[in-house]
Design brief:
Blueprint (H helix, E strand, L loop, with lengths): L9 H4 L8 H17 L2 H11 L3 H7 L3 H27 L5 H4 L1 H10 L12 H43 L6 H27 L6 H23 L10 H7 L3 H7 L35 H5 L23 H4 L2 H16 L6 H9 L3 H18 L5 H35 L21 H30 L1
Helix pairs in contact: 2-5, 2-8, 2-10, 5-10, 8-9, 15-18, 15-19, 17-19, 18-19
Length: 468
């Protein structure tokens, strides 16, 4: 990795400052920091031990843990590719010729022609660079906020000057005090902007910024290969993952228990039998293309750089492929709120929830509710039935609710990414409703809504009797 070493030539000292491009650089840094943190031992253990094995993900998405890890790997790689593209573009403005060639180096890295052994994740030197990047990101975010505030104050300043010019009269005591206070505040704000420019990426050179981001990019990629390499054969193998791939499956758990996982190539991707009864005569699979297509590798072995490939990988039988993931997440969260509500839910609230459903789900809910009501018949055992329905609905919401919340969180993170710099690991698509089987999700939602209707039919009737 000699190309990453700091150049001592005079050309490097003449590198220009980032200036306005500091905000794009800070956004890229924040994405790299998020990726770096998402690959820590704790986060990887959570992904393998909790996320892919959670009831909702296993039932609605897939039981194949290797397949789910492949999707997670692809999403992390796509985020890294986006960062690498920005770094390569910024590298063209560097005075160091080695940094100008980062795009070619990253390609070689992904082809496995660069030695990974010197890319140590969480080493002392790397942690110092991570801390430095965090300071730059926070300072650049502060600069952005200060510039926004200064811009608003300067607009007010121009209006005040126009007012003074058109009203050529002596200002009175309180009025003059207000003008003086404003002048003092805008002066403080300008000083704050200057300080943030000194501490942020604004005054840093292209060479310094690109060098530190390039190194972290390579380290993150090496870490991805180490974490996911044992299950994704198309990734370049690190020394550790290369050895693991050749271990016998029965010895894998004994030698590397944290990496013990079923090999997807030896097990058919199927769906788990969950709490909602399904027609066993119909195979319910979440289908994608091939492992190579998940990792976006062409037949020639070249890695694609097209944006949002993971997002568009969801097939037509999934909620993401049908464009219903966020809509159903909103329905589930509203139903969860109504289930936990301490007050009586009126007909208007129930009608609003019903109107959020697509037509096919409305028909399914009406049909299912009609059967339940005819079976119930409004007998004296309403209290027992309502309690049973509440237990059943709470059990379903126990695994359906977290996926709905993660779906909304994923969307919010993508929207906030345009305005805020986030350093924490982001939610993965694989833990949302995006890849969930449409038929099974709709069956679960219908069960929840029918249960809610039965619960509140009894509880509202009971409250009405008590009020009379």
């Amino acid at each position: 990795m000699g190309w990453l070493r700091k150049s001592l030539s005079d050309d490097s000292a003449k590198s220009a400052s980032l200036g306005i491009l500091s905000f794009e650089a800070a956004k890229t840094m924040s994405r790299l920091l998020s990726l770096y943190e998402s690959l820590s031992n704790e986060q990887v253990a959570n992904l393998k031990g909790n996320v892919v094995k959670s009831r909702g993900v296993a039932y609605l998405n897939s039981m194949d843990e290797g397949f789910l890890l492949g999707l997670a790997c692809a999403e992390r790689l796509e985020d890294l590719d986006k960062s690498a593209m920005v770094i390569a573009r910024l590298g063209q403005k560097c005075s160091d010729l080695a940094l100008q060639q980062f795009g070619a180096v990253y390609t070689d890295l992904k082809l496995g022609t660069i030695d990974f052994t010197k890319l140590e994740y969480k080493s002392r030197d790397v942690e110092r660079k991570i801390a430095k990047m965090e300071k730059f990101v926070y300072a650049t975010q502060g600069l952005f906020n200060s510039l926004e505030g200064l811009a608003e104050m300067e607009i007010s300043e121009k209006k005040m000057k126009i007012w003074k010019k058109n009203n050529d009269v002596a200002m009175q005591g309180q009025q003059k005090a207000n003008f003086d206070s404003f002048a003092q505040n805008i002066s403080i704000k300008r000083k704050q902007v200057r300080l943030f420019k000194e501490a942020s990426l604004w005054n840093q050179t292209f060479d310094k910024c690109v060098r530190i981001m390039a190194r972290i990019t390579c380290i993150v990629y090496a870490r991805i290969c180490y974490v996911f390499g044992p299950y994704i054969p198309v990734l370049p193998a690190t020394a550790m993952s290369r050895n693991i791939r050749f271990l016998r499956q029965k010895d894998l758990g004994r030698v590397y228990p944290e990496l013990s996982i079923t090999d997807p190539s030896k097990e058919q991707i199927g769906s788990k039998s969950g709490p909602i009864p399904v027609n066993t005569g119909k195979t319910a699979l979440v289908r994608f293309y091939t492992r190579k297509s998940i990792l976006f590798v062409s037949e020639e072995g070249k890695y694609g750089m097209k944006n949002n490939r993971v997002l568009h990988a969801a097939g037509p039988a999934t909620l993401g492929g049908s464009g219903l993931a966020l809509r159903y997440a909103d329905v589930i969260l509203l139903a969860e709120r109504y289930l936990d509500a301490a007050v009586r839910i009126g007909n208007d609230a129930r009608e609003n929830l019903y109107e959020m459903l697509p037509e096919n789900l409305k028909v399914a809910v009406r049909r299912k509710l009609g059967k339940k009501l005819r079976r119930w018949g409004g007998g004296g055992d309403g209290e027992l039935l309502a309690a049973g329905w509440r237990d059943a609905v709470e059990d379903i919401m126990g695994w359906l609710g977290p996926m709905a919340r993660d779906t909304v969180t994923w969307q919010m993170e993508r929207n906030l990414e345009k305005r805020e710099l986030r350093l924490k690991p982001s939610v993965l698509l694989v833990q949302t409703l995006h890849f969930s089987d449409k038929e099974k999700t709709e069956a679960a939602i219908a069960e929840v809504l029918v249960g809610l209707s039965c619960i509140y039919r009894y509880e509202n009737r009971l409250l009405t009797r008590l009020e009379c």
